[in-house]
């Protein structure tokens, strides 16, 4: 009786299973295609942000204004002078929040980590309040350096406190230190606001989170820290994969855990500080986007970071456009819309089995 052939077709392992190399290549192609789709969606969100508003414009009018700027043309004034800087701030803030949230979740191994975890929002808020009440700052561009400095100092304090002891900056210690510092700084913010009506009136417009009223001066102020933070964050993908396996395994793989945590903290400070300074403490973007990216690509932080860098600004710009439409001819601040949109999305994500696992 003839023996059945056991030879496998080319590109397959014995038994007919696809070879590992072919499977990895196919997966990489799908991920690259997914990145291209996300990039197209981001471009569509940018175009929608330039088109939609109290004075709606057609795509041809927007493209014409971008290609041939005329200071005497109404469309050029609307697109280039008003909506373009607002859109650029949205792209930079979204990119920063998406990458920062991903790095923070990987660093702390906490699925609920967001820019508020390391005291970023509280530190920026306190700095803005002091800038208003003490220095008399009243412009959005004037808030940016103070907010960035406050966010950076708060993050450094949290990381320093979390690093005390023999074990260094463990995820649990960082989370506890962040909660304690945030509570203390929030109390100081409340104390200052109770004694300054002017600070209260001005802070509420910044603290809700908004892109409206941001000009090119804000763009140029936050571009360098966002660019530097993005480079550091994207370079941390392989290291975050090691940390996800635990500190002991990461050390066994040859990683210097302390250096990885320090580099992650630098990236978070640059990204969160710049985003919070530019647009205020916007909720849910840095929390939801890494979970969404993780569901698309799995647990490889190299791909999670890349997808988060595209999904987050798309989400922020879409929420900004929604805010202009639902309250026409006025608008809702983007921080309100992200909270309304992000809360149910996050609930749906965490209810799915395995989503909260890092």
Q: In brief, what are we looking at here?
A:
With 358 residues, this protein is an all-alpha fold. It has 14 helices and no strands.
List strands and helices in order, with pairings:
Elements lengths: L19 H32 L7 H9 L6 H35 L11 H14 L6 H23 L8 H24 L2 H11 L8 H19 L2 H8 L2 H6 L4 H23 L5 H13 L3 H26 L7 H18 L7
Helix pairs in contact: 1-3, 1-13, 2-3, 3-8, 3-11, 3-12, 3-13, 4-5, 4-6, 4-7, 5-6, 5-8, 5-11, 8-11, 9-13, 12-13, 12-14, 13-14
Protein name: Putative iron chelating transport system permease protein
GO biological process, one term: siderophore-iron import into cell
Membrane topology: Multi-pass membrane protein
Account of the 3D structure:
With 358 residues, this protein is an all-alpha fold. The protein has one domain (88-351): ABC transporter involved in vitamin B12 uptake, BtuC, CATH 1.10.3470. The protein has helices at 20-51, 59-67, 74-108, 120-133, 140-162, 171-194, 197-207, 216-234, 237-244, 247-252, 257-279, 285-297, 301-326, 334-351. Helix 2 (59-67) crosses helix 3 (74-108), helix 3 packs across helix 13 (301-326) and helix 12 (285-297) crosses helix 14. The longest helix has 35 residues, at 74-108. The N and C termini lie far apart (53 Å). The model is unreliable at 1-13 (pLDDT under 50).
């Amino acid at each position: 009786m003839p023996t059945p052939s056991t030879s496998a077709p080319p590109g397959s392992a014995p038994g007919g299973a696809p070879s590992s190399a072919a499977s990895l290549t196919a997966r990489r192609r799908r991920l690259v295609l997914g990145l291209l789709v996300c990039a197209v969606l981001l471009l569509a969100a940018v175009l929608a942000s330039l088109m939609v508003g109290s004075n709606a414009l057609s795509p041809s009018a927007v493209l014409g204004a971008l290609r041939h700027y005329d200071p005497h043309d109404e469309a050029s004034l609307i697109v280039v002078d008003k909506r373009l800087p607002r859109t650029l701030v949205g792209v930079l803030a979204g990119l920063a929040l998406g990458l920062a949230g991903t790095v923070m979740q990987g660093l702390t191994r906490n699925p609920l980590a967001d820019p508020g975890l390391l005291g970023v929002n509280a530190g920026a808020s306190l700095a803005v309040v002091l800038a208003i009440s003490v220095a008399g700052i009243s412009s959005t561009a004037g808030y940016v350096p103070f907010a960035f400095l406050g966010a950076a100092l708060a993050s450094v304090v949290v990381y320093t406190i979390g690093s005390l002891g023999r074990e260094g900056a463990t995820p649990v210690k960082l989370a506890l230190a962040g909660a304690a510092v945030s509570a203390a700084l929030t109390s100081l913010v409340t104390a200052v606001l109770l004694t300054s009506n002017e600070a209260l009136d001005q802070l509420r417009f910044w603290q809700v989170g908004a892109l409206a009223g941001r000009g090119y001066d804000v763009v140029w102020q936050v571009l360098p820290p966002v660019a530097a933070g993005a480079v550091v964050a994207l370079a941390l993908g392989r290291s975050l994969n090691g940390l996800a396996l635990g500190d002991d395994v990461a050390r066994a793989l040859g990683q210097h855990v302390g250096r990885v945590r320090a580099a992650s903290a630098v990236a978070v400070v640059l990204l969160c500080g710049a985003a919070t300074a530019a647009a205020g403490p916007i909720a849910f973007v840095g929390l939801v986007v890494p979970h969404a990216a993780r569901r698309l690509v799995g647990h490889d932080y190299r791909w999670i970071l890349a997808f988060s860098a595209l999904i987050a600004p798309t989400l922020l710009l879409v929420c900004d456009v929604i805010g202009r439409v639902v309250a026409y001819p006025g608008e809702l601040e983007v921080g309100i819309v992200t909270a309304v949109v992000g809360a149910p999305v996050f609930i749906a994500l965490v209810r799915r089995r395995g989503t909260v696992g890092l």
